[in-house]
Amino acid sequence: MNPKPPKAKTTSDTPTASFVVVANRLPVDRIENEDGSTDWRTSPGGLVTALEPVMRKNEGAWVGWHGAPDEVLQPFEDAGILLVPVPLSAEEVEEYYEGFSNATLWPLYHDVVAHPEFHREWWDAYVRVNQRFADQTAAVAEQGAVVWVQDYQLQLVPQMLRAQRPDLKIGFFLHIPFPPTELYQQLPWRNQILEGLLGADLVGFQLPGGAQNFVRLVRQRLHYQTHRDRINTPEGRTVLARAYPISIDSQGMADLATSPAIEARAAEIRRDLGDPKFVFLGVDRLDYTKGLPERVQAFGELVSDGSLDPEEAVFVQVATPSRERVDQYRILRDDIDRLVGRINGDIGRIGRPPITYLHSSYPKDEMAALYRAADVMVVTPLRDGMNLVAKEYVACRPNEDGALVLSEFAGAAKELRQAYLVNPYDIDGMKGRLLEAMNDSPRSKTRRMRILRRQVFDNDIDRWATLFLDDLASPTA
Ligand code: F6P
């Protein structure tokens, strides 16, 4: 990427825009190479995957952190988007990003699958950094602009922004699950976060259950009047809380997957794996919510108890490095390394490990080739807001073959009902489903995949953004 000076409208020195996305990360990260030079790389995760195509169409501004500490950068333009970097000090990265966002809120909002830590200094940093994002956004947004704030790292921004700029239309979308009320109540700052979110005109969730949990909490804790998906604030505003299940650029992904270069690469991947009869694939950020150990364990047991022949079936697991300095992520990385090593050591042969484990991130075209190479896609998180990998796999199966094994606890399971659904905590159940997905008749696989594909193509990222932004624009939605 070659950053350029901003082209957007400027008033005095600050460029401004009529559509502004605010997210913890910019769509690109600034990274330092080994020789000391710097470069830009696409940021990890589903949020960027989903929002990039929306932004390309809307030509707005994107306010976010550029991924490196202690660096102040000027706004710049990339592919028609004005990127506005928000600086974070090394201490803020520790306390706001690794601490409050990813060691307090992340586990709390994901069913407490890891223990959330509550520290007052992390909360103070969260407030301070949210205020900085709000200030930066207030400076970039034109009069009457639409501002769309993203995700759990920035839940105070709507209220902080409204305090400075009541002229703005403010939307908020939570990409991760909103927890059951009983879990949410553990949070010492529970009321402040509810009030922060209520600064928006529209608060979006992945699933109706999340929206309902939020409305119930607002009623119980803040005693505001609510009616179904509407909340009346004491100052006389109405806030809507609704579900908008997020999706992908389905056609873009499908076009990529059917290109001759990707088809050739998919064939090459299968050859490199030893031309097995069945390729199982997992693709995840290396996160304890994704259920990696359970999945690897299930596959390993199928091989060791003789249900699967390692000459016939292999498992490829891509784990994208993530939040590597947070303790729980370090522990998980060691656990997975050990588990994969043990399984491959116990049951592998020279040149034929049953599990190929890749701790790395890959560009989109390599991912498309992997999806095309895989007979069974295994997406088994313990809890997940949506999971876009499941949708990407479906978009990349033009021949209506392949099978998707999907956790009941991924938001995507509410839409992708024709997947082979599993409870990832039930290892025996998961083993059964993996075999069923592998051995199902081609006819049944095609029937399932056809319905899944219809779902993913009818409900793509454009539709998601249009539904959200139309509701935000219409005061009587
Ligand atoms: O989808 C959840 C999310 O936390 C996004 O907000 C984020 O862009 C992505 O996962 C990757 O996480 P991180 O920015 O912490 O690497």
Radius of gyration equals 23 Å
Shape: globular
Mean pLDDT: 94
- The CATH topology of the largest domain turns out to be Rossmann fold
The fourth-level CATH homologous superfamily of the largest domain is Glycogen Phosphorylase B
Q: What is the correct CATH architecture of the largest domain?
A: 3-Layer(aba) Sandwich
Q: What is the quaternary state of this protein?
A: single chain
Q: What's the helical proportion of residues?
A: 40-55%
Structural class: alpha/beta
Spatial strand sequence of the major β-sheet: 7-8-6-3-9-10-11-14-13-12
What does this protein look like?
It is a single chain. This protein has 477 residues and is α/β, with parallel strands linked by helices. The protein has two domains: 10-246 and 462-473, Rossmann fold (3-Layer(aba) Sandwich); 250-459, Rossmann fold (3-Layer(aba) Sandwich). Helix content is 43%, strand content 21%. It contains 16 helices and 20 strands. It has helices at 46-58, 90-109, 120-140, 157-164, 181-184, 190-197, 208-222, 250-257, 260-272, 292-304, 327-347, 364-373, 388-395, 427-439, 442-458, 461-473; strands at residues 10-11, 14-15, 17-25, 28-32, 38-42, 61-65, 76-78, 81-85, 141-150, 169-173, 202-205, 225-227, 230-232, 238-243, 278-285, 313-320, 355-358, 376-379, 403-407, 420-422. The strands form four sheets. A ten-stranded mixed beta sheet has the order 7-8-6-3-9-10-11-14-13-12, with helices on both faces. Strands 17-16-15-18-19-20 form a six-stranded parallel beta sheet, with helices on both faces. Strand 7 and strand 8 (81-85) form a beta hairpin. Helix 9 crosses helix 12 (364-373) and helix 10 (292-304) runs parallel beside helix 11 (327-347). The chain is globular. Mean pLDDT is 94; it is low at 1-12. The structure holds 6-O-phosphono-beta-D-fructofuranose (F6P). 6-O-phosphono-beta-D-fructofuranose (F6P) binds next to strand 3 and helix 1.
